[in-house]
Specification:
Elements: H1 2-6, H2 32-44, H3 55-70, H4 73-100, H5 104-117, H6 122-134, H7 138-151, H8 156-168, H9 172-185, H10 190-214, H11 218-231, H12 236-248, H13 252-265, H14 270-282, H15 286-299, H16 304-328, H17 332-343, H18 350-366, H19 370-383, H20 388-401, H21 404-421, H22 425-442, H23 446-450, H24 460-474, H25 483-504, H26 507-514, H27 519-523, H28 534-542
Helix pairs in contact: 4-5, 5-6, 6-7, 7-8, 8-9, 8-10, 9-10, 10-11, 11-12, 12-13, 12-14, 13-14, 14-15, 15-16, 16-17, 17-18, 18-19, 18-20, 19-20, 20-21, 21-22, 24-25, 25-28
């Protein structure tokens, strides 16, 4: 039995012969209908089977044929492609709905799904570009449109859209090429005709702006750039030209803002870094300006502009610091020299020069060169009309000059300083003091009349000595030959000299006068000085009898008296004018 067992090929249930039948034993002949089906199966698959194959072999052959038909790769690929196209179309329709609702981000997402499902359909790239344009993603839209035209070269709508994008970023010549291409195929395309005119205008503006930059006509360059940017708001070239024009016009904040936007697109632009450094330089942010210039040199080590700017900034810092140190040490002459040298480095930096003029004015004030200091303050204000300290320093100069007109100007200067800096206790005190000084200036200046340079600090002895000198100078008898006008002036001055002495020689009256009171305010509650005869004071100092017409103080020419003036018939006895 073992050999017999060894001859079995399949176990029961393996699809082969029943258990106990040798594998090589002839099959039992089928009967009836089964016999016919087996004969047809054998005949159908006679090329693939041997005459001795079993019914199972016929069955296996049939199954293999069916599998082969179902797994045909071409058919499967076509079916899958159709399915993806259907999905893509559905995504596109959803994207169109989102686009119509102005939900451009979701529309773009839907078009991306459509492209993933069917990447060979150019329309989906065109649709995505439309959404990208609405989101301001012009450079991405350009990529989408170029892919669209790669797949669908005859898509004129995409060509027009591509031209618009090129126009928006300032590629006027490329935009012109696209619009001309469209018009060659579709001469009646109104959109292409209109956009072509815009592209031609933009091209001319860019060319003229380049020439203006070369000729250093930065105002013209700025105007052309701003006009061009209304057509091409994303033009980097026009934006850089605009930055140069804004810097030239002193609009440093706006120029810096433009450079910030450009930096987002490309931080490795050496020229842009230099322009940005110039903005910082004119904003007096020297440290950051140097840092930007050093970055530019890392990108372009041979850039002469960056090298020159760094040297200039460091020289300015060195000279100004030297001036400040000299001022602190009280060496004002040396400080003036340093500030003057610093002013010569770069007159175009108006804000910085304004501070240098103001600093130099401070040193000039210390040296009592008030007129020169005033001139420097005025230069500072001319360069920077919102420089509050320049106004306060100007007021200081004007107060030092001290005339009524100067004090009135000083009050105006303080008003401008208050507008810029706001109110403060110090400013309020200065305004109050200046008003008092102005009130004094509007009165007769008794110290000036007597020639007392120390003003309120004058001693009694100085006041008496000054009176004697002034009284002798302006006594009317001395001006008898000066003609009517000269005599009238002398009489008025002689009266003022007496009035000045009467006030300044009286401690109470002097205190009131020094406090800013007018003559009328000083006389309130007391006798009026208007009734005092200045000759009484003169006689008190010089003595002698009064000659002339009944002793009239100003007409002692023909009367008697002791001594008299030389060459005259009388006068104040015993006193001789030499």
């Amino acid at each position: 039995e073992l050999p017999q067992a060894a001859g079995f090929a399949r176990a029961a249930g393996d699809g082969g012969a029943p258990v106990g039948v040798p594998a090589d034993a002839p099959a039992a002949p089928p009967s009836g209908e089964a016999m016919d089906e087996a004969s047809e199966a054998d005949e159908a698959d006679s090329d693939a089977s041997d005459a001795g194959d079993s019914d199972q072999d016929v069955h296996d052959a049939g199954v293999k044929g069916a599998d082969k038909e179902d797994s045909d790769p071409i058919a499967v690929a076509e079916a899958e492609k159709a399915q993806r196209q259907a999905q893509a179309l559905a995504f596109k329709e959803e994207g169109n709905a989102k686009y119509k609702d102005k939900d451009y981000y979701k529309a773009m997402d839907c078009y991306n799904l459509a492209i993933n499902a069917d990447p060979d359909n150019g329309d989906y790239y065109n649709n995505r570009a439309a959404a990208e344009i609405m989101l301001g993603l012009t450079h991405k839209a350009l990529v989408s449109l170029r892919k669209c035209l790669e797949l669908s070269p005859d898509n004129l709508k995409a060509k027009v859209r591509l031209g618009k994008c090129e126009l928006k970023i300032g590629n006027a010549d490329k935009a012109l090429s696209e619009f001309r291409n469209v018009l060659e195929r579709d001469p009646g395309n109104g959109v292409a005709m209109s956009e072509k005119r815009e592209a031609e205008l933009l091209s001319q503006r860019i060319k003229r702006a380049r020439v203006a930059i070369q000729e250093n006509d930065l105002n013209m360059a700025l105007r052309l750039a701003q006009a061009g940017l209304r057509q091409a708001p994303e033009s980097r070239e026009l934006s850089l030209i605009r930055v140069q024009g804004l810097i030239a016009n002193g609009d440093y904040d706006q120029a810096y803002s433009v450079t910030t936007k450009l930096m987002r697109d490309n931080q490795n632009d050496a020229q842009l870094l230099i322009f940005r450094a110039k903005c910082l330089y004119f904003q007096e942010n020297f440290a950051n300006a140097i840092r930007h210039l050093q970055q530019a040199l890392q990108l372009d080590p041979d850039n002469r502009d960056a090298q020159i700017e760094i040297k200039k900034i460091r020289k300015l810092e060195r000279l100004k610091l030297a001036g400040n140190d000299s001022f602190k040490r009280g060496n004002h002459k040396e400080a003036i020299e340093s500030y003057t040298a610093c002013l010569e480095v770069d007159p175009s930096n108006k804000m910085y020069c304004a501070k240098l003029y103001c600093n130099r004015a401070a040193s000039l004030i210390k040296l009592k060169r008030n007129e020169e200091a005033l001139a420097d303050c005025e230069k500072a204000i001319a360069l920077d009309s919102d420089y509050g300290r320049a106004y306060t320093r100007q007021a200081t100069c004007l107060r030092a000059i001290g005339t009524k007109e100067a004090l009135e100007r000083a009050l105006h200067s303080y008003g401008e300083a208050e507008r810029i800096l706001g109110r403060s206790n110090e400013l309020n005190r200065d305004i109050r003091d200046t008003k008092l000084e102005l009130k004094k200036a509007k009165r007769k200046d008794y110290y000036q009349i007597l020639g007392l340079p120390n003003k309120e600090k004058s001693s009694d002895a100085e006041i008496k000595k000054a009176y004697k000198k002034a009284a002798l100078k302006w006594h009317p008898d001395r001006h008898a030959s000066s003609g009517p006008e000269g005599q009238e002036k002398a009489e008025a001055m002689f009266k003022d000299v007496g009035e000045a002495y009467e006030v300044l020689s009286d401690e109470t009256k002097k205190r009131k006068y020094d406090a800013g009171q007018t003559l009328e305010e000083i006389e309130q509650g007391g006798p009026s000085m208007g009734g005092h005869d200045p000759n009484d004071i003169f006689q008190m100092f010089f003595g002698g009898g009064m000659g002339g017409h009944g002793g009239h103080p100003f007409h002692g020419h023909g009367g008697g008296g002791g001594g008299g003036f030389p060459g005259q018939g009388g006068g104040y006895g015993g006193f001789h004018f030499g």
